[in-house]
Amino acid sequence: MGLKTWKKWTDWPLMMLSVMFLVAYSWEILARTHVTLCENVINAIWAAFVIDYVVSLWLADDRWRWFKRNLFALLTIALPMFRPLRLLRLLTVLHVLNRTSGMAVRGRITVYSFGAVTMLMYVGALAVYSVERGAAGSTITDFGTALWWSFVTVTTVGYGDVSPVTFQGKIIAVALMFAGIALIGIVTATLASWIVDQVNLEAGRREDAREKEVAKEAVQAAIATATTTATTETAQGKTEIELLRKEVRELTATVAGLREELERR
C-alpha cells in the first residue's frame, strides 16, 4: 500500500475523529461532566493520530522530505489541542474558489487562514478557560470572557481588560498573538496581490485597446491609399482613352482627306 492509498482511505475517518475530538474537548471544558469518558475519547483519538503519522512516515518514498513537509502534523501530535485544524480540509470542496487560477490560490489561502484562526480562537478560548477559571486573581472566569479575550488577542487589539495570570495561559496567549500577526500578513499579502492583478489586468486591457486602435488606423490608411491609387489610375485611364479617341479622330480625318484626293484624281 502506498502513501496516497493510505491517505485516501484515512482522511475522512480522521476528519470525523477530529470532530469527535473537538466535541469531547469542548464537553470536558464547558460541561465538566463525564470527564473520564471525555479523557478516554481524547486519548484514543490522539493515539489514532499518532498511528496515522507513523504509518504515513513509513509509507513515504522520501521519509526525511515528508518529515520536513509535515512538521505541523508533528505539532498536532505533540499538542493535541490543535488537532481540530484538520477540519479545514473540508474547505477544499468550495469549488467556487477555482473559477480563475489566481483566485484559486488566493481564495484557498484566505479561507484556510481565516478558518485556522477561527478554530485557534475557539480552541484557545477553551484552553485558556480551562487553566484560568480556578486560578487566583484570574479575570477569565467564564467561557464568554475567554472568547472575548481570544478574539482581541488574535486581532492584536489587546484591550488589557482581561489577561491570563497562569504560565499555561500566557503560553496560549503567545500562540494566539503569533496567529494574529500571521493573519494580518496573509491578509495584507492577499490584498496586495489582488491590487497588482487588477493593475496588470487594466494595463493589459489598455494595451489591447491601443493595439486595436493602431490596427484600425492602419486598415483605414491602407483603404485610403488603395482608394486614392484607384482614383488616380482611373483618371489616368480616362485621359489615355481621350487621347486615343483624339488620335483616332485625327487618323479618320486624314484617311477621309486622302480618299477625297484620290477620287478627284
Automatic annotation (TrEMBL):
Its membrane topology: Multi-pass membrane protein
Gene Ontology biological process: action potential
Annotated ranges, domain Potassium channel: 118-196
Short name of any one Pfam family annotated for the protein: Ion_trans_2
Main localization category: membrane
Membrane-spanning residues: 12-30, 42-60, 109-131, 143-159, 171-196
InterPro entries: K_chnl_dom, VG_K_chnl, Volt_channel_dom_sf
One Gene Ontology cellular component: voltage-gated potassium channel complex
Keywords: Ion channel, Ion transport, Membrane, Transmembrane, Transmembrane helix, Transport
Domain of life: Bacteria
Subcellular localization: Membrane
A GO term, aspect molecular function: voltage-gated potassium channel activity
Protein name: Voltage-gated potassium channel
